[in-house]
Amino acid sequence: MSAHSPLPLAISARGPLRGTVVVPGDKSISHRSLMFAGLAVGESRIEGLLEGEDVLATAAAMRAMGAQIERDAAGIWHVAGVGVGGLLQPACALDMGNSGTSTRLLMGLIASHPITATFIGDASLSKRPMGRVIEPLSAMGAEFTASPGDRLPLTMRGLSPAVPIEYTLPVASAQVKSAILLAGLNTPGLTRVLEPVPTRDHSERMLRGFGADLTVEETPQGRMIAIRGEAELKPQQITVPGDPSSAAFWMVAASIVPGSDIVIANVGLNPTRTGIVTALRMMGADITELNPRTVGGEPVADLQVRHAPLSAIEVPPDLAPSMIDEYPVLFVAAAFADGRTVARGAEELRVKESDRIAAMAAALAPNGVRLEEFEDGLAIVGTGGAPIAGGAPIASKLDHRIAMSMAVAGLGARDAVSIDDAGPVATSYPGFFATLDRLTDRQP
Ligand code: S3P
After folding, report:
1. Quick one: 219 exposed, middle or buried, by C-beta within 10 A (0-12, 13-18, 19+)?
2. What is the spatial order of strands in the sheet that 370-374 belongs to?
3. At residue 426, what are phi and psi to the nearest 5 degrees?
4. Catalytic site residue 325?
5. Residue having the nearest C-alpha atom to atom 16 of ligand 1
6. Phi, psi (5° rounding) for residue 194?
7. d(CA 55, CA 34)
8. CA-CA 20 to 30 A from 304: which of 50, 187, 244, 247?
9. What spacing in Å lies between the alpha carbon of 355 and ligand 1's midpoint?
């Protein structure tokens, strides 16, 4: 799955977005559904799973380690787990494709099983730092042989029984937190993670739902999460809510294209994920929550988004963990706002599927957007609603969110924005361009 032939695509200005879009399942929750179900004793059923390449990489890896995973004709996924401690030695290398979440969470799972596994991935994933998980998992007893800079390809050997640790997260990362908690699942005693800055809490919510003995305590130093290992996980019926990170592209598209009025159905609104809604509302976006409800233990609503003039803001840096994947599309919103938007405190963007600060600066500037690059973010001078020039080619850098963000920018460009490779969109949102055509009333 690691190699694509490039899929070039040009997007130019289009009329308003109208209608309803149901966004695909949440990527974070989809990965976790397969992993936790794969460790339960008995059969779980997952509805609404995101069928993107990243999640399919997790499914393939869990199968390679013994879980039985099938998709039925109705699109429901059935997973028969191996039981905590029951993962098997995979017969060949685990191909993680583009997926950092698969890699880091599975490294956690394997760390406390007596198996050896090799992780490989595409050129983007092979540049991403794995030291942040290698360090705590080594303290639990796992051994690693990584490529220079603690990168993939890497081989690890888990230890069983592993050693429980108490670890304070040095970076605000749900992947690191989850890797340690997953290692803790098969570790005797209490494994603790102290999270000074809250990050997405899907692992905590879902592990509790699966019957793990997990507690969360607010302390003056942050959230202390403790998991007692060697517990049995019970199979679950899971409904995966829609991904707010995928919804964000439509929120911005409808906000910047005059005349737009859409409903984005089934959007997960876990408060650890909704920074983009807060930031866009601060800019003046017209977003209304309809039909609030709970799906799979997560708050969900439909969002009506209508075009609205946007104003520049200083994006509060403390929103960063709850909108870390949404900065690329927020930069696009800023390009159409009135005034200079400053978004800083987001240095983690440099180690995502691409260096998203550099990639967005390199994509927006030649398309006529005035900006300034900082180590930890961008300042962007918006047009006040007028079109941007467009007309320049951009490199998606094997990063789905750069491709989708620049497609949204193209909707408000005088001349087409040409994306060198839109293929990476399949990692998280396979139907994105078909949906764009439908919402803008185009035949594909
Ligand atoms: C994710 C956590 C975030 C996010 C990624 C998904 C997760 O990464 O960027 O897309 O599912 O836990 P970090 O933990 O590196 O911030």
Report:
1. exposed
2. 314-315, 340-343, 377-381, 370-374
3. -65, -15
4. yes
5. 173
6. -100, 125
7. 8
8. 50
9. 14
Atom of ligand 1 nearest to the CA of 352: 9
**186-233 confidence digits (pLDDT tens):** 999 999 999 999 999 999 999 999 999 999 999 999 999 999 999 899
d(CA 432, CA 7): 14
Packing angle between helix 244-256 and helix 432-439, nearest 10 degrees? Answer: 30
User: Closest Cα partner for 60 from 86, 28, 20, 97?
Assistant: 97
For residue 245 and ligand 1, the question of a CB distance below 6 A is answered with: no
> Going by DSSP bridges, is the β-strand pair 68-71/77-80 parallel, antiparallel, or unpaired?
antiparallel
Contact assessment for residue 61 and residue 94, using Cβ atoms and an 8 Å cutoff: yes
Q: Would you put residue 78 in left (φ > 0), alpha (ψ -120 to 50) or beta?
A: beta
For residues 124 and 103, give the distance between their C-alpha atoms in angstroms, rounded to a whole number: 13
Report the C-alpha gap between 281 and 269 in whole angstroms.
15
User: Which amino acid, 303?
Assistant: L
Q: How far is the CA of 178 from the centre of ligand 1 (A)?
A: 10
Domains of the chain: 9-24+241-439 (3.65.10.10), 27-238 (3.65.10.10)
Residue type, 233: L
The whole-angstrom separation of Cα 47 and Cα 52 is 14
**Residue written as tokens 């559904």?**
33
- Lookup: tokens for 205: 């919510």
- With contact defined as beta carbons under 8 Å apart, do 193 and 118 qualify? no
Question: What's the gap between Cα 238 and its chain centre?
Answer: 19
Q: Which pTM was predicted?
A: 0.98
- Give me ligand 1 centre to Cα 260, in Å: 31
Task: Note the pLDDT tens digit of each residue in 225-272.
Answer: 999 999 899 999 999 999 999 999 999 999 999 999 999 999 999 999
Check 26, 201, 302, 325 and give the catalytic one: 325
CB 401 within 8 A of CB 357: no
